[in-house]
Amino acid sequence: MIKVRNEIIPFREGITVADVFREIGETIHPTTLVTLNGKVIPYTKLHHWVLSDGDELRLLPIISGG
Amino acid sequence: MLFKLVADMTDLTVKKEPLDEAYYELGGRSLIAQYLIKNVVPTCDPLGEGNHLIFCTTVFAGTKLTTSNRMSVGGKSPLTGGIKESNVGGYAASLLAEQGIRLIIIKGISKTNDLWTLHVDSKGEAWFKEANDCKGMNNYEFSEQIHGKYGSKIATVSIGCAGERLYKNASIQVSEFRSGHPSRAAARGGLGAVMGSKGLKALVIEKPDERHQLKYQNENQFNEACKTLNDLVAKGVQNDPFHNIGTIATIEATGANGILPVDNFSGKLFPEYRKVGANQFMENLSSRGGKNKIPCQPGCMVRCSNSYHDEDGKYLTSGFEYETIALFGPNCHIADLDAIARMDRLCDDLGVDTIEAANTIAVCMETGKIPWGDSKAALDLLNEMLEGTDFGNLMGQGCEAVGNHLGCKRIPVVKHQSIAGYDPRNTKGTGITYATSPMGADHTAGLTMGRAFDDCGRTAQAYASNKLQVAMCFADSMMCLFAFTHMVPGIPLLANLMAGLYGGEADFNRIATMGVKTILTERAFNQQAGMTIKDDRLPDFFYREKSPATGAKFDIDDHELNVIFDF
Questions:
Q1: Chain A to chain B, count of Cβ pairs less than 8 Å apart?
Q2: Quick one: B230 and B286 in the same domain?
Q3: B345, B436: one domain
Q4: ipTM for the whole complex
Q5: Contact A62/B at CB under 8 A
Q6: Which domain holds residue B504?
Q7: Helices (DSSP H) in B237-374: which residue ranges?
Q8: Judgement on whether residues B453 and B414 belong to the same structural domain of the protein
Q9: Which of A8, B157, B190, B391 has the highest local Cβ count within 10 Å?
Q10: Residue B98, pLDDT score
Q11: What is the CA radius of gyration of chain B?
Q12: Range B80-98 burial, b when 16+ CB lie within 10 A, else e
């Protein structure tokens, strides 16, 4: 299973971050940080990043500057 | 009753008086605007006796609203020549609120070469204390000395030797809650020089023996709205990268989309940006005993601050932020987070704006004075400011002065103040904010990144900048922007807070009016100071040069900039 927000997405071989986003109805936007098991995934690699069973994704939108 | 301190450096008197009724429903940026337009001649010499330096807390200081204990510093800026409000976190505003003090006015200029501190003690008494033994002392040593003498329940608001030397890039540093590190900066616009010109080294504020009790007109109304807004922040920060990582997280977004400035705003991408990004930062914290999720003021839920340690695990700097990292990092072609942390520490200690100092380094690299990417050479130049060499003193006059001296053709300033860590070609609404904000090139005045449809496009950019600039005016009067961002769904409740504390109707017009009136007042001050629409433009190279990362130029029509505040 893949955990994202408060949802569980069934794992399947070859599932990517883009697939997960599509299933939860999210758009990949450069100002949303995506962490995988606590580490930030580069925006340029998000679309094709292949996930493993048990991975946890978090979406952290940047909504101000500092 | 709330109070103000009126401190006259000319005769070294301090009077504690009731706060003017007209200022009760003002705080932070809104209070600074109304105070300065009434009391400071806009054509005065910013380093002369006609300028006033004011410190104030927010409209909701002393309440339970998270981050409401923020401090604003104001005056005529020696860098921009216009009005300046520079706000800062740290412990000082919280203690002033506990003392019942909304406003501190510093007028006049010391008649001698003596240096002074303004001390507010635990009984609420305030007086000037001679501080000649602190001449030339920098902020870390000063803060350690004061905390060593008075303990942890004290705040310092100080200048380093940069402010004493009247550097136009001089900041005012506020000590952080708990740690006491002087790492929170009222950085922009050279207000540290105004403080130095008056002979004032520091404010030293003690925690009062008896906490001032605010008089609410309808405490239930206030508390209900406050709880809802605080709950919004508590929920929002769970997924806020500033809470989970720190503001350095912004590098991950801007580095990928061309908004991160690279090589003096060349508009290129920087392939190594991740070496100064979130993962490297978190790894360094974890392996060296540093920490994130630190509140800079009591009661802050965002907790974006941090304590960053060196390779040996020793404390190096805190409040290590995106702007500093972006501008000393990729904008100088530097990909060494530890070197940048040393620069941050040096700037906080000496008391200079990291944005201004970093842009100054970048123009030194552009003109070949030092090589691109040479972090040692960059640190050596910053040390010249510390030592007060001839070139160091020139650097203290800011990026434009150094750029002109070195013959740089690409000087990234608006109203003489350096541009922040967002390339305006690739976030055009932010570019409009840089150009039109009365504050000069200030990203906090209205950062549109991610909000204005296509950041590189032209559609609705001026609309977004206008709305944000007004919103930031009232937000900067009430709380930290990072908390405000999470309160947006509950914005109408700000009116309930006003009514609950000050009485009257819970009418949102009171809030909106505060924003519009503040920005129009600031513009009026600047016009009277001599600024024209020519000052509301970006440097020429942003209009001419395409960003290689996106192909975008800053192609917003002048007309949109001219009418942006025609309400």
A1: 79
A2: no
A3: no
A4: 0.87
A5: yes
A6: 217-237+431-567
A7: 241-244, 250-257, 278-288, 322-328, 337-350, 354-366
A8: no
A9: B190
A10: 98
A11: 22
A12: bbbbbbbbbbbbbbbbbbb
